[in-house]
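Hi U.,

Before I forget, here's the chain from the pilot set. I'm dumping it here mostly so it's searchable later in email.
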Amino acid sequence: MKYIPPKKLKVIMALFFGTGIMGIIVGLQEHIFFITLFGTINLCLGGLFGYRLLTQQKPSTEKRKR
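Structure:
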């Protein structure tokens, strides 16, 4: 997979977690199943990007290995 800068991943992860938490809270207060479901999906996507942030490796800068 392509290398993504850590700052960009952190921003995307924070946005997914924020909208996921907000969606779950609003969905449970208003008793709307789909908003709660989409909030849960956003939390899972935030976790996926967090995993990507923790496991990716910086590409090698040595030209002779290419």
